[in-house]
Design brief:
The structure is a single chain. It contains 8 helices and no strands. The two termini are 30 Å apart. By secondary structure, it is mainly alpha-helical. The longest helix has 35 residues. The model has no long low-confidence stretch (mean pLDDT 84). The protein folds into 2 domains: 114 residues; 146 residues. α3 packs across α5 and α6 packs antiparallel against α7.
Length: 270
């Protein structure tokens, strides 16, 4: 059974409930949003297992890669909500999951030729590690945006009832910190595994393609951010700005470079 439509609908409804939470005083709508995003993630897990057991790659092209990325974002948000009770992040995580799963049901199937190398389980691990790490960076970005917005409102003395829904600055900074220190090693291992696999599959570990180069730029930026956090004591605004900048480069690499630049990592099946 194709669960994709139900998954997309679940993320859409979760987005509606979380968005409505902005304009109401009660917590019931955010709770509903959380339960529905959990349902969506559970159904998406089933759909991914179904695809994998049928021998199909989980990240073949643009739509399937986004579909997998959305799953990781949902899982990371759910984990952060359980630990930090920062439900406002769901107002951003749920719409992201909805938008990223949408191409999976609206784009024509079979427009990208099947790449046999993607059936290699180590390739899947390589992709999954990087996407999971970047999902953690996504939640760090969301917490960074909320931190900067709330800090600006406090400094300008425009503190209203709206900010009562925000997690504390300390909580947002902790979410940012935890996502970075977990996500960075995952991305690092994923890139290292990719280098080993590239040598085995294509005969060269690094070809300096556009996506490889920008991925390296992203890695260095997060390495600087992690160093600043752990060695130089960066907190608060600096860390939030770094998370926002890093996510911007991820988006550029994923959507612009990954879609337009020809190479082994593009979305055009070349």
């Amino acid at each position: 059974m194709d669960w994709s439509w139900i998954v997309v609908l679940s993320y859409f409804l979760s987005s509606i409930f979380y968005g409505s939470h902005f304009w109401t005083k009660g917590r019931n709508l955010s709770k509903l949003g959380f339960y529905i995003i959990v349902l969506g993630a559970a159904l998406q897990t089933i759909s991914l297992i179904y695809v994998y057991t049928r021998g199909n790659p989980l990240a073949q092209g643009f739509d399937t890669t986004l579909y997998l990325f959305a799953w990781f974002i949902s899982l990371v948000y759910i984990a952060s909500q359980i630990k930090f009770k920062a439900s406002l992040l769901g107002a951003f995580a749920a719409p992201l999951a909805f938008i990223m799963t949408l191409p999976h049901i609206i784009l024509p199937q079979g427009i990208i030729e099947l790449n046999a190398t993607l059936s290699n389980p180590w390739i899947l691990i390589h992709i999954a590690l990087i996407l999971l790490g970047e999902a953690l960076f996504t939640v760090a970005f969301i917490s960074g945006i909320l931190y900067l917005f709330q800090e600006n409102k406090i400094k300008s003395k425009h503190v209203g009832s709206f900010l009562e829904k925000f997690p504390s600055l300390t909580t947002l900074d902790r979410i940012n910190h935890l996502c970075l220190i977990i996500g960075f090693p995952l991305v690092t291992i994923g890139i290292a595994l990719g280098l080993l696999l590239a040598k085995e599959i294509w005969g060269a570990s690094w070809e300096w393609g556009q996506k490889e180069t920008w991925s390296l730029v992203t890695w260095f930026l997060y390495a600087v951010l992690i160093h600043g956090r752990l060695a130089s004591g960066w907190k608060g605004r600096k860390a939030a700005l770094g998370a926002v900048l890093g996510f911007g480069i991820i988006l550029f690499t994923f959507f612009v470079i990954g879609y337009l630049a020809p190479g082994q990592h593009d979305f055009l099946g070349q």
